[in-house]
Amino acid sequence: MDFDSFVLCASTADLAAEPSAREHADAVEFRMDLASDPLAALDGYDGELPVLATNRARWEGGEADDDTERLDALATAVTMDAVEAVDVELASLQDGNGQRVVERAREAGASVVVSTHDFEGAGDAETMATALDAGLEHGDVAKLAVTATGRKDVLSLLALTDEYDRADDAVATIAMGEAGRHSRVVAPLYGSRIGYAPLDPADATAPGQYDVATTARLVDELSPR
Ligand SMILES: O=C1C[C@@](O)(C(=O)O)C[C@@H](O)[C@@H]1O
Questions:
Q1: Atom of ligand 1 lying closest to residue 197 CA
Q2: How far are the Cα atoms of 71, 78, 167, 212 from residue 66, in angstroms, in the given order?
Q3: Atom 8, ligand 1: residue with shortest CA distance
Q4: Which of the listed residues 174, 182, 183 should we mutate to test ligand 1's pocket, taking the one with most ligand atoms within 8 A of CB?
Q5: Reported pTM
Q6: Among 71, 101, 146, 180, which residue has the least CB neighbours within 10 Å?
Q7: Cα 16–chain centre separation
Q8: In this structure, CATH architecture of domain 7-116+184-222
Q9: DSSP assignment of 63-113, as one string?
Q10: Could you tell me the distance, in angstroms and rounded to a whole number, from the CA of residue 54 to the centre of ligand 1?
Q11: How far, rounded to the nearest angstrom, does the alpha carbon of residue 41 sit from its chain's CA centroid?
């Protein structure tokens, strides 16, 4: 999967739901940590959309507990044909444990998204840039999802997104929460390369998400012709 332009992911724990994502999404983000037998589901996957595999650790807002098992499963997932990209937490790369997933992804020709989440706040622009720079050192796309507490946080994030995009650095930026909700459809206009949306709002995988049909429609309507 390449991230030269915006990729909208339908975020789901259920790969069987892929047919209903096709109309709106470019890819499926498979939240392995929220699925009951994720490797079996991937093995049986015969959908059309490419898969971005995420196995989010509990310490980063997900539900996967054992870090060794979690990263092993991710390393196996990237060898599967449908998996064209993988998400690895920046912290897992900085402590060295996630490196084997990146190596496996490289061998398999899958792209690597390096993610950082802040579920409490946004930090200042320098903190955000530090996370993006570190992500770019390890992977193809640096993803930063922060929690916006007000408009200023969103503006800082959008300004940074614009800067990295102008430098041709692939970043994905998201301001989570109510104050940041609009960033999910506006950040792509400033160069954010990935969006995440559930098929059904009741299955949101993060605060402030629009459903995938709404996200696709709004991004399309707002995009310059
Ligand atoms: O990291 C991300 C971004 C996200 O947290 C969001 O805010 O849309 C949703 C997650 O499913 C995904 O793995």
A1: 8
A2: 9, 19, 37, 30
A3: 196
A4: 174
A5: 0.97
A6: 71
A7: 20
A8: Alpha-Beta Barrel (3.20)
A9: SB--HHHHHHHHHHHTTSTTEEEEEEEHHHHHTSTTHHHHHHHHHHT-EEE
A10: 9
A11: 20
Which residues participate in the annotated binding site?
Answer: 29-31, 56, 184, 205, 209
Domain-wise residue ranges, the chain:
7-116+184-222
So what's the ipTM on this one?
0.95
What is the residue with the minimal CA distance to atom 4 of ligand 1?
206
Give 90-141 pLDDT, tens digit per residue.
999 999 899 999 999 999 999 999 999 999 999 999 999 999 999 999 999 9
Residue with tokens 């807002």, as numbered in its chain: 61
Cα of 206 to ligand 1 centre, how many Å?
6
Rounded-to-integer distance, Cα 184 and Cα 8, Å: 10
Please list the active-site residues. 117, 143
